[in-house]
Specification:
Elements lengths: L6 E5 L2 E2 L2 E2 L2 H13 L3 E5 L4 E2 L4 E8 L2 E7 L4 E4 L7 H9 L12 H8 L12 E3 L2 H10 L2 E6 L8 E7 L2 E7 L5 E6 L2 H14 L7 E5 L11 E9 L5 E10 L15 E4 H9 L1 H26 L4 E8 L5 E7 L6 H4 L3 H20 L3
Parallel strand pairs: 1-4, 1-8
Antiparallel strand pairs: 2-3, 5-6, 6-7, 9-14, 10-11, 10-14, 11-12, 12-13, 15-16, 15-18, 16-17, 18-19
Helix pairs in contact: 1-9, 4-5, 6-7
Length: 361
């Protein structure tokens, strides 16, 4: 098949009748057309190696239309879950140039970052979960988190806090329900969390136990921030946006999928909470941290395209990295009313993909 324009493929997971991120993919397709590129979406079962073509999809009004597509000049890996053996085989074969190298699970990444001097000051203490490690963390910190090392969307997370002579745990189960439990002693906490870890495990991954941060910038509500850093059309890292997320009452997480949280503009919220001078310092440190982290990531894992970083700012104004995701969502900017930032966040992966496609092989 002849190609009249640059071709960007997006490899992802298909489900019956469409894709797991249909709105974002429609926006990618539209913005790609504006940039003069052909964008289409496919999964591992759509690749026809023998004929050097792909049965790719593109949005057509309310449906997805599948037709033969030319071999892509570059591929964006947007597979966020259910990595099949055939998908992993395709990824290993290096059939196309990719915009990002493969990344490790967040439990591995966090432990590694804690040992790197240039970024360790931003990393909460983290260990692979065990009963003994939980007990040790409870000795050291008044607040402790237990969460999946390979989870997404804030599910299966437990927040454990000391309350006078008792312990209180708040958990966000896979089914999105909040659970609260109160314990008279440490042994009860550990037994309860052990059960939680067994029943809430995400895929086959391990859990981590992490130093808790006092992020209650609003009483009774955890607050964190989504920082999006992306490569631009010249292949350089650039901050795209920052947004603040406020969790629901007593929720251990701030994920907005659960309908009990809300989003705020970062600068407005930080000025209200810390005053203009401190808010400016916090922003500067967030940006400095993000650039330091992506430099470390690329040294270790190879070229990357974008990261969504969950950033905590504690009650004293100290900045912390909660986790870094190489395949982030960007909907939070729609929820804060920053549509121009959202559109920039959609366009930049495409602009960077075109940059990669032009590089000599």
């Amino acid at each position: 098949m002849s190609k009249l324009m640059p071709v960007i493929g997006v490899i992802t997971r298909r489900k019956k009748g469409g894709f797991v991120e249909p709105d974002y993919f429609r926006d990618l397709y539209r913005e790609g057309s504006k940039l003069g590129a052909l964008v289409y979406f496919f999964s591992e079962e759509d690749v026809r190696l023998k004929d050097n073509v792909i049965l790719g999809f593109a949005p057509d009004k309310r449906r997805w239309r599948q037709t033969l597509r030319p071999w892509p000049d570059v591929v964006i890996d947007r597979r966020r879950s259910k990595w099949t053996r055939s998908f992993l085989n395709i990824r290993r074969k290096k059939l196309f140039p990719y915009t990002s190298s493969k990344f490790a699970f967040k439990d591995v990444v966090t432990r590694e970052l804690s040992r790197i001097d240039e970024v360790s000051k931003w990393i909460p203490q983290t260990s692979t979960y065990s009963s003994d490690r939980l007990s040790q963390m409870m000795d050291r910190f008044p607040l402790v988190y237990v969460k999946p090392g390979n989870g997404t969307a804030g599910g299966s997370v437990v927040r454990i806090a000391k309350d006078n002579n008792h312990w209180i745990a708040w958990g966000r189960a896979k089914g999105k329900n909040l659970r609260k439990a109160r314990f008279a002693n440490r042994e009860q906490v550990i037994n309860w969390v052990n059960t939680w870890v067994r029943t809430e495990r995400v895929r086959d991954g391990k859990f981590i136990v992490q130093q808790g941060l006092n992020l209650e910038l609003i009483p009774g509500r955890v607050v964190d921030n989504r920082l999006l850093i992306q490569k631009n059309k010249n292949g350089k890292w650039e901050l795209t946006g920052l947004a603040t997320r406020i969790g629901g009452p007593n929720s251990p997480t701030t994920n907005l999928l659960y309908d009990d949280g809300k989003a705020r503009k970062f600068d407005v919220f930080m000025r209200e909470r810390f005053g203009p001078e401190k808010a400016a310092e916090i922003r500067e440190e967030c940006v400095r941290m993000a650039h330091s982290l992506v430099a470390v990531f690329e040294r270790k894992y190879g070229p990357m395209m974008e990261f969504g970083m969950d950033v905590g700012v504690d009650v004293d104004g100290h900045v912390w990295l909660i986790e870094a995701n190489p395949k982030p969502s960007r909907d939070v900017f729609l929820k804060t009313g920053e549509r121009s930032t959202y559109l920039k966040a959609v366009r930049r992966p495409l602009e960077y993909a075109l940059y990669v496609a032009k590089q000599p092989t």
